[in-house]
Design brief:
It is built from five helices and three strands; from the N terminus they run αβαββααα. The protein has 122 residues and is of the alpha+beta class. It has a single domain, classed as Aspartate Aminotransferase, domain 2, CATH 3.40.640.10. It has a three-stranded mixed β-sheet with strand order 1-2-3. Strand 1, helix 2 and strand 2 form a beta-alpha-beta unit. The chain starts with a helix and ends in a 5-residue tail after the last helix. This is Aminotransferase class I and II.
């Protein structure tokens, strides 16, 4: 979506007092040019940003995340607790460490470097 349209959408959510749900499933991978900024980055107070680690790490990982406006954090945390008491903890803790140690960013950079070095010919 072009930046002008993104800004219009943000304006609409402010007027209607509602939220945008943004699923930016492949934002880490760009085949050419600079990444397009997420709507969440432009208006974090108006966007519920949904993501997963399936594409950037492994489909078997099955861990997703939400980046929420501050005013939604407590209610979403309560809903998560009520609806999903069985979330596997060890994998989440390992992923947390992987991210905190900078390994996720390093992985993404390596994948991007490898993508740019591959030449496809037909």
């Amino acid at each position: 979506m072009p930046i002008a349209r993104r800004l219009e959408l943000i304006q609409y959510t402010k007027q209607k007092n509602c939220f945008i749900v943004e699923d930016d499933y492949d934002s880490e991978y760009r085949y050419e040019g600079y990444p397009i900024p997420s709507i969440q980055g432009l208006a974090p107070e108006n966007v519920i940003y949904v993501g997963t680690f399936s594409k950037i790490l492994s489909p078997a990982l099955r861990i997703g995340y939400l980046i929420l406006p501050e005013k939604l954090v407590d209610s979403c945390r309560k809903e998560k607790h009520i609806s999903d008491l069985h979330t596997e903890t060890l994998t989440q803790l390992a992923l947390e460490r992987f991210i905190e140690e900078g390994q996720l960013l390093k992985h993404i950079r390596n994948v991007l470097a490898n993508m740019q070095s591959v030449k496809i010919s037909i």
